[in-house]
Write a structure and sequence with these properties.
Elements lengths: L1 E2 L1 H5 L6 E13 L3 E8 L2 E8 L3 H8 L6 E9 L9 E11 L17 H6 L1 H4 L3 H23 L3 E2 L5 E2 L11 E4 L2 E5 L4 H9 L4 E9 L12 E10 L3 H29 L13 E3 H10 L12 H8 L5 E5 L12 E2 L2 E5 L1 E6 L2 E8 L4 H10 L8 H4 L9 E7 H8 L21
Helix pairs in contact: 5-7
Bound molecules: 4-amino-1,4-dioxobutan-2-aminium adenosine-5'-monophosphate and magnesium ion (MG).
The site of magnesium ion (MG) has 3 residues, from strand 18.
Length: 428
């Protein structure tokens, strides 16, 4: 029976096993040869004794990263680090690797990020890189599990769309037969329509496209958005749902990969039970105490956010953003319309999530379109859903890569993106 390396390690001494994997490294000595075999679960030494002449010969023609199948007996009293080896009886080359490798898997010297991304298939064979994406999967599973428990259903909305969701400038145009279309910036409008459709709680995990020209360590042109929308709810309900989703994601990651991460020097954040909140206006005050002048209605610069972030050790919300800074669908704060029922979730200086209570009154929505200089006609596919019974609702969009990045303390979003799309890269 073919086993994974991790499963093989749990077998009894002398068990006959078949293992498949990559030849991470090998050494040919006079009397014996060694292979470090790697699969998706770990590495194990394969030892080929002198008397197995055919095998010794096969080994001498091996290359690093060749894919092999090894049959042999487990020896649990070996002189290896973990005390375990497989004494090989046979070795089959399933696919030979070319040489030299474009990128080493076990080399100590780190290649630059461009070389690594150009050869991502091999870069991801490194344990520490592989671990990033297994971590991301666990975090997402923790969030999904929590949302399911809270009676959200997972939905899938179109990515080829006819109108801008988050504002006009940052759209990728698509030629859609005889019509002009765009890649969607966010599932925002569709998840709201689904609230009118009566689903009450929906979430989506999918790609979002932003034709932003800047090239920074925290922006991608295609990212993965975890989006929720909840009916008969306001921004405070959405914030609570976000806080608990994040905590569930971190719990899931900690319980599965926490030890592996700490062996790589990565300690996961300890989210506070209640994430602190600070309003936009309080941020301005905080900044002015530090001699940083920010006028009401301006967005915070990265430098501003560094100062604000230095006041908080972990996750916190910035609430009540100026209405003029938020998209048309954002609910103004009742009685103080220059502010809005909106929030960002921050981790130190990084924005992880934006969310809000939404406008549900069709007349107010129409006004908001006009205020933003948008043509309501362009959005009739969306605003129609508001005329025939739209519940009050709220939600958020959480960038999966941003979340993974801050959790694993990485400094470039490309590290946590399998195949990043940035200002200059569309391949591989
Ligand atoms: O802040 P954004 O643009 O908000 C929305 O899309 C709203 N529809 C959300 C809502 O429900 N009100 O994007 C949400 C999150 C950001 O906080 C960030 O984490 C991530 O998506 N994000 C990006 N991640 C990487 N690269 C980019 N260019 C990103 N733009 C947004
Ligand atoms: Mg935002």
């Amino acid at each position: 029976m073919s086993l994974s390396i991790a499963d093989a390690l749990t077998q009894e001494n002398d068990t006959e096993v078949t293992l498949n994997g990559w030849v991470q490294d090998f050494r040919v000595l006079k009397t014996v040869s060694f292979i470090v075999l790697r699969d998706h679960t770990g590495v194990l030494q394969v030892t080929v004794k002198k008397d197995k002449e055919v095998l010794q010969k096969a080994i001498s023609s091996l290359q690093r990263e060749t894919v092999v199948s090894v049959r042999g007996k487990l020896n649990k009293e070996a002189l290896t680090k973990n005390g375990i080896e497989v004494i090989a009886d046979s070795l089959t080359v399933l696919n030979k690797s070319a040489t030299p490798l474009p990128l080493g898997v076990i080399d100590k010297v780190n290649a630059d990020i461009e070389t690594r991304l150009n050869n991502r298939f091999i870069d991801l064979r490194k344990e520490e890189n592989n671990l990033i994406f297994r971590s991301e999967s666990e975090v997402l599973w923790g969030i999904r599990k929590y949302l399911h428990e809270q009676k959200f259903i997972e939905v899938h909305t179109p990515k080829i769309v006819a109108a801008a969701t988050e504002g006009g400038a940052d759209l990728f145009p698509v030629q859609y037969f005889e019509k002009n279309a765009y890649l969607n910036q966010s599932p925002q409008l569709y998840k709201e329509i689904l609230i009118s459709a009566g689903f009450n709680r929906v979430f989506e995990v999918g790609p979002a496209f932003r034709a932003e020209k800047h090239n920074t360590p925290r922006h991608l042109n295609e990212f993965t958005s975890i989006d929720i929308e909840m009916g008969f709810s306001d921004h405070t309900d959405a914030m609570r749902m976000l806080q608990e989703s994040i905590k569930s994601g971190i719990r899931q990651l900690k319980s599965t990969l926490g030890d592996s991460l700490s062996s790589h020097g990565i300690n996961l954040p300890e989210p506070p039970d209640e994430f602190p909140k600070i309003t936009y206006n309080e941020c301005i005050e905080l900044l002015s105490n530090r001699n940083e002048v920010v006028n009401f209605g301006s967005d915070f610069t990265p430098e501003n956010l560094k100062i604000i972030g230095s006041e908080f050790p972990s996750f916190y919300f910035i609430t009540e953003w100026p209405s003029e800074l938020r998209a048309f669908y954002t609910m103004p704060k009742p009685g103080q319309e220059s502010l809005s029922n909106s929030f960002d979730l921050q981790f130190k200086e990084f924005e992880i999530t934006s969310g809000a209570q939404r406008v549900h009154d069709p007349d107010m929505l129409e006004l908001r379109f006009r205020k933003k200089g948008l043509n309501p006609e362009d959005f009739s596919f969306y605003s129609n859903a508001f005329r025939y019974g739209m519940p009050p609702h709220a939600g958020w969009g959480l960038g999966l890569e941003r979340l993974t990045m801050i959790m694993l303390n990485m400094h470039n979003i490309r590290e946590v993106t399998l195949f990043p799309r940035d200002r200059t890269r569309i391949s591989p």
